[in-house]
């Protein structure tokens, strides 16, 4: 099979990077397999894409919102029809097992339906006036060109969370997908274009962060930046955007705790911990990376987790029996192995895993064993820093107060969970956990697209994707007062006794 070449998608045309530079992406489960050749773009390509988005904007913003929504709804049908093929593309580009890749596509389908329906809602508020013969309402308006920068771990879902709400609001888009997994963005856009999206409304520029992402953030014609990725890069994006007073929405890292109280159903906990910690090879922003467990049940629970973790079937995600795939790239592999070494040096006890798998079927990929550390203290770096790999740190506590204190004692605040059958404990946790998402008797992963998604503290800057909040980043409120009295009526003056 010839190697697919992905050109930038600008103004409805596929174009090579101006410099002619490209880069290659290989399957993280088997480095002998090339996924595709992509454009190594720079500021010149970003300028072209922004110019195309700018040219398309005046027409797109005037397309009635229900019509824009219909395009999204049609795209949902196309995504559904192609789910299997797109899942395989996604697994090959970033490694997660096929069943999880299918979930990524389903999230995009859900978002296309939800955002598509918004075309017929997009409610504003209408209120009575203080004055007679005066009418007032508020409407949402698009802002302009939205620059989107996405990571590789949910390459279809995250692109859809940003792109579809932005489009239904009437904005045009330039997206710079994660360099390790750009195919899924092309697949999403393919469906939108076939569903009727006009040329230039969405543009794709591939490449690396500093050379292709940063020029997008700094481009003066791009008033909104929607970023998902690490806190380190998010902070830079925020600073650069602030200089031009841009609206910047940031979704960043996590160090998500799962609390287990002594009355919890341990069978349920076991399933939740395995899925939360090792699903997507731990490479989820919402991955369970800290298990905060009541001391009285810790030994029993850890034994069962270790037993299950050591039996997880690790392999190429394209094999339907695979439960855990590879890490996304060599840097990520090195980083995870360094954290495992650090955990040992910090004095934690390595209960299982910890090894780089590099022989036999694993010889050509970036595989690491599911890893569990016990005797972890909250001050250790493995208990505080985002590892983004299949590494679980177990911290023992004496009760709910200590559990909540430990859970909140990190810089991040994305997702948190508690397993308990005590309703009072559950409600206390719901209120006191410093996180944008809380689960009761479920692991830290499993968000649905029709509730707000995002985090507090170093995870976000106050915005929420998805849910009814999803339009806020991509639209500007306008309040409209219609005075049909035929006289000058001065609010707060003429109506005051
Ligand atoms: P990353 O920060 O390395 O990269 C994210 C994106 O930013 C990529 O497209 C990259 O090319 C781009 N980028 C890098 N440097 C840049 C620069 N100087 N200017 C502009 N863009 C730049 O993150 P990653 O490794 O792709 O993804 C993993 C991280 O993403 C983790 O920290 C994870 O927690 C986070 N994440 C968060 C969420 C969330 O919703 N909170 C969801 C998924 C992933």
Any chance you could write out the topology, listing elements then pairs?
Blueprint: E1 5-6, E2 8-10, E3 13-15, E4 22-27, E5 30-39, H1 43-60, H2 65-81, H3 83-94, H4 98-118, E6 126-127, E7 134-142, E8 145-149, H5 157-169, E9 172-176, H6 183-194, E10 202-204, H7 209-218, E11 224-228, H8 231-243, E12 247-251, E13 256-260, H9 266-278, E14 288-294, H10 295-310, H11 330-346, E15 349-352, E16 356-357, E17 367-368, E18 371-374, E19 391-397, H12 400-408, E20 412-413, E21 415-419, H13 423-432, E22 437-440, E23 456-457, E24 475-483
Parallel strand pairs: 1-5, 8-9, 8-11, 9-10, 11-12, 13-14, 13-21, 14-19, 18-19, 21-22
Antiparallel strand pairs: 2-3, 4-5, 6-7, 7-24, 15-18, 16-17, 20-23
The chain binds nicotinamide-adenine-dinucleotide.
Can I get a quick summary?
The protein has helices spanning 43-60, 65-81, 83-94, 98-118, 157-169, 183-194, 209-218, 231-243, 266-278, 295-310, 330-346, 400-408, 423-432, and strands spanning 5-6, 8-10, 13-15, 22-27, 30-39, 126-127, 134-142, 145-149, 172-176, 202-204, 224-228, 247-251, 256-260, 288-294, 349-352, 356-357, 367-368, 371-374, 391-397, 412-413, 415-419, 437-440, 456-457, 475-483. It is α/β, with parallel strands linked by helices and 497 residues long.
């Amino acid at each position: 099979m010839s190697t697919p070449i992905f050109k930038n998608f600008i103004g409805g045309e596929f174009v090579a990077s101006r410099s002619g530079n490209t880069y290659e992406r290989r399957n993280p489960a088997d480095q002998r397999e090339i996924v595709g050749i992509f454009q190594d773009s720079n500021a010149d390509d970003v300028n072209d894409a922004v110019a195309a988005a700018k040219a398309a904007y005046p027409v797109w913003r005037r397309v009635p919102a229900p019509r824009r929504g219909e395009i999204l709804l049609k795209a949902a049908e196309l995504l559904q029809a192609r789910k299997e093929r797109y899942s395989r593309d996604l697994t090959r580009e970033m490694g997660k097992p096929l069943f999880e890749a299918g979930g990524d596509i389903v999230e995009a389908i859900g978002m296309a339906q939800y955002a598509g329906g918004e075309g017929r809602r997009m409610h504003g508020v209408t209120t009575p006036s203080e004055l007679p013969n005066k009418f007032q309402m508020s409407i949402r308006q698009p802002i302009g060109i939205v620059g989107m920068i996405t990571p590789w771990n949910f390459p279809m879902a995250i692109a859809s969370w940003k792109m579809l709400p932005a489009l239904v609001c009437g904005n045009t888009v330039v997206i710079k997908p994660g360099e390790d997994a750009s195919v899924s963005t092309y697949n999403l856009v393919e469906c939108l274009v076939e569903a009727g999206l006009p040329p230039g409304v969405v543009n794709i520029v591939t490449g690396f962060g500093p050379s292709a992402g940063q020029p997008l953030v700094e481009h003066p014609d791009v008033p909104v930046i929607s970023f998902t990725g690490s806190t380190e890069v998010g902070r830079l994006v925020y600073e650069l955007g602030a200089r031009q007073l841009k609206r910047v929405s940031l979704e960043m890292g996590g160090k998500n705790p799962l609390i287990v109280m002594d009355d919890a159903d341990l069978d349920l906990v076991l399933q939740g911990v395995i899925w939360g910690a090792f699903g997507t090879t731990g490479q989820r922003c919402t991955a369970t990376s800290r298990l905060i467990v009541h001391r009285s049940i810790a030994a029993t629970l850890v034994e069962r987790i270790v037993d299950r973790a050591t039996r997880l079937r690790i392999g190429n995600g394209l094999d339907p029996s695979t439960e855990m795939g590879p890490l996304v790239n060599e840097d990520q592999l090195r980083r995870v192995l360094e954290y495992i070494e650090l955990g040992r040096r910090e004095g934690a006890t390595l209960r299982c895993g910890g090894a780089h798998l590099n022989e036999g079927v694993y010889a050509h990929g970036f595989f690491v064993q599911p890893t569990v550390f016990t005797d972890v203290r909250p001050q250790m770096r493995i208990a505080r820093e985002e590892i983004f790999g299949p590494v679980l740190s177990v911290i023992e506590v004496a009760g709910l107060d200590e559990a909540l204190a430990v859970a909140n004692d990190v810089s991040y605040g994305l997702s948190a969970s508690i397993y308990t059958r005590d309703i009072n404990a559950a409600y206390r946790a719901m209120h006191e956990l410093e996180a944008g998402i809380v689960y009761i008797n479920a692991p830290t992963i499993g968000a649905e697209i029709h509730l707000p998604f995002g985090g507090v503290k170093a995870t976000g800057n106050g915005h929420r994707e998805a849910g009814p909040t999803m339009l806020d980043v991509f639209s500007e409120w306008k309040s409209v007062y219609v005075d049909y009295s035929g006289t000058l009526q001065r609010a707060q003056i003429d109506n005051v006794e």
